[in-house]
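Dear support,

I submitted the protein below through the web form. The confirmation email said the job was done, but the results page showed an empty box. After a refresh the structure appeared. I'm attaching both so you can tell me whether what I see now is the final result or a partial one.
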Amino acid sequence: MNLTLAKTYPINATSIQNVESVSEDLVLLNLELRGDKLHWDARPYHWRYDFGVFPPLDVSFDSETGLLKEMTIFINKQQLQQQHSYPLTVLSNIEGYPAFDTTSLSHNSYYYDELADIVVSLADSCLIAIRKGVDTSVQLKVTDALDILLTAQSQFAGFIVYKIDHRQFM
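What the results page shows now:
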């Protein structure tokens, strides 16, 4: 089972970044999405990508509509890769607000865990978190500060956060 994009909507949204230093080597990045036409009435699902000894990448989305609510990732400063250029090649770029497929998810369980190697990199003024070994085909522009990366089968592959202050991760 994979986290899969169901459709996109023409909804204008903003992303609010919160970066906290949790310890000497660990930083928390939370991205909350807001918009006038975004309504989350149902309890959220949490799709967690476990990729190490620290808490997972958590993608939270509405259990009724599938609309993305927020993403949280803990970043180990020691494992953070520095890039001099943007390292991705994608086949298509699209815009919209993502809604994930909830049809195969149980309404009795709100947490789904998947083991994945997540590589986190800083490049230019952005932070990239991507599943290692997964081909990225689609770059979905959600807000001016957030892109979602998808496979050719519309499965979640990672994300890019723009307007990052590198000093917060050093």
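Response: this is the final, complete result; the empty box was a page-load delay. The two ends are 35 Å apart (CA to CA).
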